[in-house]
Amino acid sequence: MVTEIRSITRIQLNPKPFLVNIKELADKIHELMQNLNYDTDEESHKFEQGATPEEVKDLEIRISGYKAIDNYSKFKIETSIVMVRGKKEKIKVGNKTKDVFRGDGKITILPVLILDYDNKWEKDPYLHFLKNIYERFLYFSTRKALAAKLFAEATSVKDDIKDFLNME
Questions:
Q1: How is the chain split into domains, by residue range?
Q2: What is the pLDDT of residues 14-49, one digit of tens each?
């Protein structure tokens, strides 16, 4: 069975005001993950139209990045963009007009350390027993170091998103 360690600190951004072109933000997150050698996947997206075409009742996009560290460990960074009560606006940037959404929202970044991602140690009871010993005693210090590295990469993604959104 794949072991997912989600005890690494969740990172949350609450931009005020949340004024963003959602497509550009999603593309930026994909680009940031690929720059860190992650394979990205848009796991889900949900869009609920408001009363008028310019209004957004509910918007959620989940983007995950995966990176194999060795043949036993894999990093996963889950990024979630959530907006509620949004409204489409046009703003002028330089000489161009840009469509953006303004509303209440948050961006959540969750780093996850995945162990035994190919289920190699689950195939027979003896290997499963050894897996428990391996993870608890032999791999413990490596796991702590990997968790610290994963958190640093997730923090890097957060900082780049803050720069993209012009947040302090």
A1: 3-164
A2: 888 788 888 889 999 999 999 999 999 887 878 777
